[in-house]
C-alpha cells in the first residue's frame, strides 16, 4: 500500500478522531480542540488527506434514497475463479461491499435494493448469471442495530466516541426534493467543499443551500465524516461473525454486542444465524481473545461461525451513484 510505512502519532489520531465526529468542522474549531495553531492543524490534516490515510465524505442514509431491502450474501466459488468473480460482483451497482474470505464462504457481499422484486431479479439474473459460482446463501437484514465507520473505536474506547453514523429509520423518513438529491450527491463527492462552491454547482443562493444542507444534517439524511484506512492504525484482521442465539435472548445479545468498541456493525438476519457482526483486530490473538472473552461472556449465545476477510475488493458508500435515477426521483416530493 502507498505510504504504508507512515506511522500515526498521537496528534494524527486526535485529528482523525475529531474528523470522524464532524467532517465539516472548520480548521479553526479543530485547532482549538487540539490546542494548536490554525496553520499547524491545517497542515497536519492536509497531510493525512494527501497520503490517503483518511478522506472526508458523506454517508447518505440509504432509507432516504428509497432502499428498503438489505441482504448479506455468502458465496461459494470454484477456487480458480474467486478473484475474477469478486471483481465481477464489484461492478454491480447494488453491491456495496465485496470481501474475499476464509471460512464457510469464499466471498461475502453486502447488497441494497428498493424492493424485494429487485432482490429476486438480482439473484436470478444478476448474481445468478455469474459463471463459476457454486452456491449463494442470502441472509436478509431484518434490523440494523449498529453501524459505525470509525476505525478509531477500539483505540479511543476510553474516550467519548464519535456520534454514530445515521442508520435506517423505521418511521418518519424525511421527504427530500430534487435539490436535496443534488446536495447529497455533491457531498458524496467532496464532504468538505464550501457552501459557496456547493451553491454554484446546484445553481442556488448560498443562504438557500446552507439551509438545505443543515436540514439534511439535522434530520440525519446524511452525515459527513472522515473515513480512515484501518491499515494505518495497525488493523490486519477483519472478520464477519455469524452468531446463533437462544430464543428470547436476541435483543439482549445484540445490545451487548453493539456496546463493544471492536464491533463495527450488528445486524439481525434471516437464515442460519440470528445476528451477524463485523469486527477488526490487529493480530489473530486479539481476535481469539475477543471471541472467547467478549462474545463468549454474553448470555444466550449458542454458537459462532467466523469468516476471516482475506481481501477487500470493493467498498462503496456512494449510494447515489446507482440510485440517482428516474425511479428514485419518483419517490421524492
Measured on Cα atoms, how large is the radius of gyration?
A: 20 Å
Shape: globular
Q: Order of helices and strands, N to C? A: HHHEEHEEHEHHHEEHEEHEHH
Number of helix segments?
Answer: 12
Provide the residue-averaged pLDDT.
Answer: 88
Residue stretches low in confidence (pLDDT < 50, at least 5 long) are: 157-166, 321-333
Strand adjacency order, main sheet: 2-4-3-10-7-9-8-5
Largest sheet: 8 strands, antiparallel, barrel
**Helix content range:** 25-40%
Terminal CA distance: 45 Å
β-strand percent reads 25-35%
CATH architecture of the domain at 65-152 and 231-315: 2-Layer Sandwich
DSSP strand tally: 10
Label the structural class: alpha+beta
Q: Specify the CATH class of the domain at 65-152 and 231-315.
A: Alpha Beta
CATH topology of the domain at 65-152 and 231-315: Alpha-Beta Plaits
How would the blueprint of this fold be written?
Blueprint: H1 10-21, H2 27-34, H3 38-50, E1 54-60, E2 69-77, H4 82-90, E3 95-102, E4 107-113, H5 116-126, E5 133-147, H6 178-189, H7 195-202, H8 206-218, E6 222-228, E7 237-245, H9 250-258, E8 263-269, E9 275-281, H10 284-294, E10 301-315, H11 320-323, H12 326-329
Antiparallel strand pairs: 1-6, 2-4, 2-5, 3-4, 3-10, 5-8, 7-9, 7-10, 8-9
Helix pairs in contact: 2-3, 6-8, 7-8
